[in-house]
Design goal:
The chain is of the alpha+beta class and about 290 residues long. The chain has three helices and 15 strands.
């Protein structure tokens, strides 16, 4: 009888383990872990990345794409997150890469995070805009979306547009139009610059620093070869419809509200940094 009870208990543990393993595969179906797998874990559609004083961690979509919408819900590191950076971005591989960035710069307890955005095209970046969130991003999940089509890039927070970068290739301004990307997220230590320009260092007694994720959604055009590039660039795709070529009136009002109240840095107004030689897109309509 004792042996029977032990066998049943072992069987129950095995079933529980297999259930968790299958459940976790919902996440691993979409992503792999190129860096710090020991600092990641998943439960159903939820997963987490963590940072310790030995390593951070990164996730990456298995699918490669050209244009579409990538979105995820993130709950950022709570408490004293100074020195840490949690990222969510898309990037191509190789030289002269294209990249669209969300970066979340941690801060001391009670101080707001910085939402840092940037775009690289043909290897050229230095197009940062930064915002303070109008909510506490550590107490609940919030949706962060990157929308990208041949004419525009839009960064959304909880479906509110905070930034637009338009395609002005016609006047010589690089725009990401032909390099397929993957979506990434990571958490890493950047206390040499992330918080008050490096003045506040990471407090490792607070480790591990944990960012939590759920509800990854990839509404994208899969792209792996020249034929895919041609198809993804076609005007027949959903993201090239006229309603996605520019913000509507409600969205314009939302973005103006964000910029009036929460923007804290704009490269287009940093005359000292660029010695008055501002990027040409700064003189073009962005909406």
């Amino acid at each position: 009888m004792a042996e029977s009870r032990l066998l049943l208990a072992a069987l129950a543990l095995l079933i529980a383990f297999n259930y968790d393993f299958v459940d976790a595969n919902k996440f691993y179906d979409e992503c792999d872990i190129p860096w710090g797998p020991e600092n990641t874990w998943a439960e159903g559609d939820d997963f987490a990345l963590s940072l310790t004083n030995s390593t951070g961690s990164m996730l990456r979509t298995k699918r490669q794409f050209l244009f579409g919408s990538v979105q995820i819900e993130i709950k950022l590191v709570p408490g004293n997150s100074a020195g840490t950076v949690t990222t969510y971005y898309t990037t191509s591989l190789g030289d002269n890469h294209d990249e669209i960035d969300f970066e979340f710069l941690g801060n001391e307890t009670g101080q707001p995070y910085t939402i840092h955005t940037n775009v690289f095209a043909n290897g050229v970046g230095d197009k940062e805009q930064q915002f303070k969130p109008w909510f506490d991003p550590t107490t609940d999940f919030h949706n962060y979306t990157i929308f990208w089509n041949p004419s525009t890039i839009v960064w959304f927070v909880d479906q509110i547009p905070i930034r637009v970068f338009r395609n002005y290739e016609s006047i010589g301004i690089p725009f990401p139009t032909f390099r397929p990307m993957k979506a990434y997220s990571s958490i890493w230590n950047a206390d040499d610059w992330a918080t008050q320009k490096g003045k506040v260092k990471t407090d490792w007694t607070q480790a591990p620093f944990i960012a939590r994720y759920r509800n990854i959604q990839l509404n994208i055009c899969d792209c792996y070869n020249q034929g895919d590039i041609n198809q993804c660039s076609s005007s027949q795709n959903w993201y090239t419809a006229p309603e996605y070529s520019k913000l509507n009136d409600e969205q314009l009002g939302q973005m103006q509200w964000v910029k009036s109240n929460y923007i804290i840095y704009d490269y287009c107004t940093d005359y000292e940094r660029f010695n008055g030689q501002m990027a040409p897109e700064c003189y073009q309509p962005q909406y």
